[in-house]
Amino acid sequence: ADDERPHIVLAVVDDLGWSDVGYQGSGDLGGATPQLDALAAEGVAFEALYGAAECTPSRAMLLTGRHAVALGLQDSVIHGTEPRGLDLTVATLADKLGARGYGTSAVGKWHLGFHTPKYLPRRRGFDSFFGILTGGGDHFAHSTTESFSVRGNLTSSTTHGATGRNLWEDDGPLGADAFAGYDGVHTTALYAERALKIVDAKFSSKDPHFLYLAYQAVHGPVQADA
Fold first, then answer.
1. Catalytic residue among 67, 79, 111, 160
2. What is the CB-side half-sphere exposure of residue 59 using CA atoms within 13 A?
3. Which one of the listed residues 7, 55, 67, 139 is annotated catalytic?
4. Across the strands, what pairs with 158?
5. Is 55 a catalytic residue?
6. What CATH number does residue 143 fall under?
7. How far apart are CA 199 and CA 194, in angstroms?
């Protein structure tokens, strides 16, 4: 990549508290975030911004630069196959960078709608996607137990392999054989490994690349990697 079009990694940590990182002065974790502390020390830490405290609105704002109210996503997160998502008329950061010649990859948690294919990451500016489409789930089994209301019908279900509720690769859920290789691997390690493969494959090229790395941690359930 050149100076005007550098490679970009946008990493998102889910539900991380303000005082959960060392550079904010918290001593509770005993220096548990040295890499983030180093990035803050060597770069710029923005401490005043308009954000949102929930998954869907915060991601929508981050990827579009528009307030959640303007996107109609300010009230709640998207539950299950609820028939809504990120406004299809609004360009994403991936759309804008792609128009400037960037390759684009998304790894991790999407949570911006998936009830129809046009809301999927590959229709929203990303060349590739690996991760989950919902708001969360078991960090090791990559399945979710979710209660949600769709048009007034309350449903409670445990899903494994159902559309949108397990690991996806690009435009569809992983098959049983591919999924077996990831079953039991914590999401943080799983997404980091995939991100490193993308960096190794794309970041040595003169063609610029944008990697959106959206971790599921530290979003519940609280499951630490052994």
1. 111
2. 31
3. 55
4. 145
5. yes
6. 3.40.720.10
7. 9
List of residues 6+ apart from 32 with CB closer than 8 A: 22
* 108 pLDDT higher than 60: yes
Angle CA 101–127–211, to nearest 5: 75
Specify whether the CB–CB gap between 167 and 182 falls below 8 A. yes
Instruction: Residue 94: give the domain boundaries.
Output: 8-13+77-214
Residue 160 has pLDDT above 60, yes or no: no
Q: Which residues contact 44 (CB under 8 A, 6 or more apart)?
A: none
Two structure tokens written together for 60: 């929508």
CB 171 within 8 A of CB 122: yes
pTM of the prediction? 0.89
**Please, what is the average pLDDT of the chain?**
87
pLDDT at 162 over 50: no
Tell me whether residue 59 is in a domain: no
Examine residue 57 and state whether it is found in any structural domain, yes or no. Answer: no
- Does the annotation mark 111 as catalytic? yes
Residue 226 predicted with pLDDT over 60 = yes
Would you say 103 and 129 are in contact if contact means Cβ atoms under 8 Å apart? no
Closest among 85, 139, 136 to 115, alpha carbons compared: 85
- Burial string for 29-53 (b: 16+ CB within 10 Å, else e) reads eeeebeebeeeeeeeeeeeeeeebe
